[in-house]
């Protein structure tokens, strides 16, 4: 599973196994074992190095999600952060924001 995703993204980047191993600073033999699913439980540190070279989030390698799906989720998080920053900059206090959330919860329960 993880190995096939590593191979998929490596091939998409046009890298050989040797190139990926060298750029990530990992052993080619270990990378090979990962890609062939002989080694199925790589360390987070290993995956972080590989993900960095492949320009994907580590979660893309860990989970069966596409890069675009993960990027869409990250964009949503950025949108929420932007909305919160806008509320803060407009003078909305934490207490006012909490009150608003509580009001919405109450309103939903009334339906």
Automatic annotation (TrEMBL):
Residues 6-61 form the HTH cro/C1-type domain. Keywords: DNA-binding. SMART domains: HTH_XRE (SM00530). Gene3D superfamilies: lambda repressor-like DNA-binding domains. InterPro entries: Cro/C1-type_HTH, Lambda_DNA-bd_dom_sf, SinR/SinI_dimer_dom, SinR/SinI_dimer_dom_sf, TransReg_Diox_bact_type. Residues 67-105 form the Sin domain. GO terms for cellular component: cytosol. The keyword Protease does not apply. GO terms for molecular function: DNA binding; DNA-binding transcription factor activity; protein dimerization activity. PANTHER family: HTH-TYPE TRANSCRIPTIONAL REGULATOR, HTH-TYPE TRANSCRIPTIONAL REGULATOR SINR. This is Transcriptional regulator, contains XRE-family HTH domain.
